[in-house]
Here is the input.
Amino acid sequence: MNAVHETLEAYERWAPVYPPIAHNPLMRVEQAGMVEAWPDVSGRRVLDLACGSGRYSRSLLESGAADVFSLDFCMPMLRQVSGSHRVCASMMQLPFRADSFDVVVSGLALGHSTGVRPWVAEISRVLREAGTLLYSDFHPEAARAGLTRSFKDAENVTFTVPHQFYSVEEQLAAVAGAGLEVEILRELRVGYELQESFPGSEPFYSRWHGLPIVLILRAVK
Here is the structure.
């Protein structure tokens, strides 16, 4: 089984217990960082790429976006999304014409791609001139250090979500190569931005203090 199928299987297992909100400390600090970098979407046509259960689709609608498209490859996740146009498809081959969107938002999904350059290039293709891309991902330094994203399914069995990591330099090169200019680059760190207590947090914070755990990037075409 390849990484794409493993990832899909993991999210199909996760979907029944995956609410459309930031439901763990990593997601909460990631969402706070995304909100700080949030572009003006009022009256605009927006794509929530790899939307999961739709937490950013909801935020986009609440922010006044005129038209929100929510795309994900996992149908059980997509069924939880409401209020937007739902599309089940691969984020590597977007079923949209060029210049379709003013804004593309993507949360914690780049690591599920099959390549950072084609991923960003496909986003750039569907972005209009002066359009904005805002994305977050599990930081490559955290992945390199051996940290993983895992969950317990409805039967309380623990699963780890497969994750490809791309260095910050690779991501910046992909963004520039796709004709986008970086406006914001933030690294959220353990013990700094991420400070929330959770079971086992004391040894976690002691061991990983200062490690970048989430990367947030905003770029304009």
Summary: Helices lie at 3-14, 25-36, 55-62, 75-78, 116-126, 140-144, 168-177, 201-208. The longest strand covers residues 127-138. The mean pLDDT is 95. The chain has eight helices and nine strands.
